[in-house]
Amino acid sequence: MNIFSTVGLFVITGLAEITGCYLPYLWLKKGASAWLLIPAALSLALFAWLLTLHPAAAGRVYAAYGGIYVTVALVWLWLVDGIKPHLWDYVGVAVTLCGMAIIFLAPRG
Hints:
The protein is mostly helical. The protein contains 4 helices and no strands. The chain has helices spanning 3-30, 37-51, 58-79, 87-105. This is YnfA family protein.
């Protein structure tokens, strides 16, 4: 799997995870319908399945995915919650993406 396919899969995985967590948040904190729990559960099941599509060891996949997740979460903050990230949010994303790159791109023998 090439780097662009992997990162794209990570982004889709992140969207599935955030959606699966955001919908119960809407129910619990914003008074939305409990029916949102059904698509939330499906979204979280999709998230778990998507993580299995990576050929690397599970722990390494989860660790590398974390950097993309943080990035997707801040984009969600901006586009869905309507809150523009601050400078330190961007710094945090840069740090997590550097960590992800070290894990993901390190040569393995």
